Amino acid sequence: MAVRSEASHKAILEATMELLDPDSGEGISVQKLSIERIARVAGVSKTTIYRWWPSKVAVVIDSFVASHIARTPVRDDLPGLEALREHMGALVETYATHEGRLISQLIAECQHDQSAMKEFKERFWHNRRAAAVSIIRRAQEEGDIWSELDSVGVADLIYAPIYFRLLFQSGPLERAWSDRVLDIALTGLTPREAA
């Protein structure tokens, strides 16, 4: 039974991403996606889906997270500042694909649905923000970012331009650009020698 449950769970996540992927031939929006359609493609009942997820948005978020975490790892085998640069670069490269369009749709969906916003924060945002903050704290401990600065505030400062560019489509999401964003931030964040 556990094997069947795991197989069903995986099939639901994969079916959801397939339905939302424009390269799959389906490419429907989050708004047009339905639990019925996910169930049909996954080969499960709607009841099976509702056993694990309270809503369509929760299914989409978990499907997205499974793919997203694999594509944007938080490296602990690198110095903090290098890991931060690597993470930001992987994030913009991921958001330059259909996953960027998907996260934009999820954010839009959350603007008028407070339960969707709660799901988004609990299932995605809090954990990914904590991962970014952990890299920044490591860079602070290593002396590459001022230790006196609030690490959450630093995360907001350097990651906000990525989400701004993603949502407003104000330019390409490229690693060279994210490197420049970090370099600009570091100009004001790097410890200075005492006079």
Automatic annotation (TrEMBL):
Residue span(s) of domain HTH tetR-type: 6-71
InterPro entries: Homeodomain-like_sf, HTH-type_TetR-like_transc_reg, HTH_TetR, Tet_transcr_reg_TetR-rel_C_sf, TetR_C
Keyword Transcription regulation: yes
Pfam families: TetR_C_11, TetR_N
Residues annotated to bind DNA: 34-53
An MF annotation (GO) of this entry: transcription cis-regulatory region binding
Keywords: DNA-binding, Transcription, Transcription regulation
UniProt keyword Transcription regulation present: yes
Annotated protein name in UniProt: TetR/AcrR family transcriptional regulator
Organism: Enteractinococcus helveticum
Lineage: Bacteria, Bacillati, Actinomycetota, Actinomycetes, Micrococcales
